[in-house]
Amino acid sequence: MAGLLFGVETEYAVAGLRPNGDAMGREEIVRSLMDAARRRLVWAPDLHPGAGMFLQNSSRLYVDCGLHPEMASAECANPWDAVRYVEAGHRILAELASSVEADSAPGTEVLCFRSNVDLSGTCATWACHENYLHRRPQSQLQSQMIPHLITRVIYTGAGGFNPFSQGLEFTLSPRMAHFECLVTENSTRDRGIWHTKSEPLCDGYKRLHVLCGESQCSETATFLKIGATALVTAMSDAGLKPGSAVQLADPLEALRIVTGDPACKKKLRMTGGEERTAIAIQRHYLETAEAHAGDASMPTWTSDVCRRWRSILDLLEDAPYSVSQTLDWGIKWALYTNHARNLGIRWDALPILNQAAELLATQAPPDAPESSESLLIVRSARRPARSTDQSSEVDPLLRSHGLERSDLDNLLARRQEFFELETRFGQLKSRGIFHSLDAAGVLSHRIPGVDNIDQAVTDPPAGSRAMIRGQVIRRLASAAHLQCTWEQIVDYGERRALDLSDPFTQKESWQPLPEADIDELTESGPHARREAALSCYLQRDFTRAEELLRGCLAEGFEPASTFCHLARVLLMMNRDGEAREEANLAWEHREHAPPYVVARTLFFQCLFAMLDGAEFSVVLGQLKSVLRGSAAYSDWTVRPMLDHLQPRLGEPNYNFLRALADALSNSSAMPRLNDFPQWVDAPAATGAEALLASSDPNETIEVWDDSDQSEGDVPF
Known about the structure:
Blueprint: E1 6-11, E2 13-17, H1 26-40, E3 43-45, E4 53-55, E5 60-64, E6 68-72, H2 79-102, E7 109-113, E8 128-134, H3 138-151, H4 153-156, E9 160-161, E10 170-171, E11 181-184, E12 192-195, E13 206-210, H5 219-237, H6 251-259, E14 267-269, E15 275-277, H7 278-291, H8 302-316, H9 328-342, H10 350-361, H11 376-379, H12 394-399, H13 405-425, H14 433-439, H15 453-458, H16 466-476, E16 482-484, E17 488-491, E18 496-499, E19 510-512, H17 518-522, H18 526-538, H19 542-554, H20 559-572, H21 576-588, H22 595-612, H23 617-626, H24 639-649, H25 651-665, H26 677-681, H27 706-710
Parallel strand pairs: 11-12
Antiparallel strand pairs: 1-6, 1-8, 2-7, 3-4, 4-5, 5-6, 8-13, 9-10, 14-15, 16-17, 17-18, 18-19
Helix pairs in contact: 1-2, 2-5, 3-5, 3-6, 3-7, 5-8, 7-8, 18-19, 19-20, 20-21, 20-24, 21-22, 22-23, 22-25, 24-25
């Protein structure tokens, strides 16, 4: 069998409530979740600054752009494991949320959601990306797989409401409303069905990165999403051209038709002029897979997936009722139609009511989304219904279809209730609607063989390098000198590296790290040793960097500056307490330090105050005073540390500290600080508070010599 591995990246929406009902900031929530992960999980830090952590089950937990937690599953070799490790990720995040609640004031709620779109008007969307291993150039797979990716929505769609509709438009796949083109290089804008991203993360293979997926709750939906797509990838990679006979004339038009058709009966135009349903196109892919099930290029589990694939396509012939207990969109369709009936809303009349709502939207300004960043996904239920001022076009449209204005008013007044149901559907833990339905035994979505989720929380999957990565992390995680990527593990304490570039490797083979010229540098003077420490720091060899810097301090070499360097290294190793001690020692030695080092010690005071949630305006005032002098500026490579701390700092603090670090490096960047109110509002210190040895802000500190800096003060 040719190599076939896959994994899933799930982005989670988060919200939080304090005991008094006030919203928690998203930065605070994410920072608390990651802090809980560092305390409670077995993990090793990502080799890339600020990128998160690899867990003992070989998954990767990190904070993605947009300040939301993301879990990337380990590499899996079969779809049962793929589902198992996605579920394990949900469980890990839910347990972290519970631990944050337990460590907070009684009544605090931390909410995590398998959401796909925000219905409050922000146009936000949370992704669930897939990755598949292949060998052929991506361009040879594109045409073969696009018809599959578009029509698989009939069983992979999460269901819900079109976030851009002014009414209540049910769709099989709400996230697909955010896809605007067929092919794209981007993942956060101009989203396309086919993503041209090329980042293999291994040797000898390529990685297909699929954007057009959603987070699902149904095991059947996730199993088929991964299993069927993996088979289509394998067939395309083997040159079987499974999609050649089902090329769509207009793929984006086809996507709109499929997502808006719960009956799965509408025909899609093909390039040859004929028409086929989405079910018929999926059957073509299925039959091709069945015909080649015994090929060496196909996995041993091909027939098992094909049987499940066929049974779901058979069920879909009688959709939507037939899948109302099995697939996400079918479960939601049954839930929402029943809720509409109880509210006296005619579900069959939604197309006309939605058309009337769109007309009404042209007569009035749109509702402004909530300004808060923390509860956007749940506050939609608290927004008032749109005003239904009279419109000359709306009433005639309604009357022509036997509807009254009261029907539209009722829909708009109750619209937010549906949005709240949609948001709560995928909520993690027992408060989620799907979880409640599943616990009540009214669903039939389970896949035999998807079990032992507790084991998947702690143990890596077999059949790939993930097994080795997880085992090493479990064995060595307590060592602060371990760093990980998908392709390697570096143990700086033992001066060795584990090569995981072969995605199927089953052997733990360590190689010594190259020493470069560091040993020669350590025999030189303290300036050279501090330069060696910088080299180690940039290579993320923090253990060696610490050793070199402590050696410099033992010789009494420029203590204030070297204490600052050491504090930065310790922060990268998540040894916050020791880093604070070193920063405090730098402050105590400021009297004989150059102004630019005094500025750096104050920078650390600001940083630690932010991490503690403490006031730091006085420190900023002191820093303003120091920065009056031209000698207070020196190039400083502090970005890696800030990136590492970004999830804990939060976006506003992170952005301010970046601007402040830029200013400390170059006085020409000072004007940008005026964009931050905390800087503008901080009064410059005067007199004794100004910290300088002289009242003249341009005078240098007592024993500082310009030659010290030119000889090699390390700017990191």
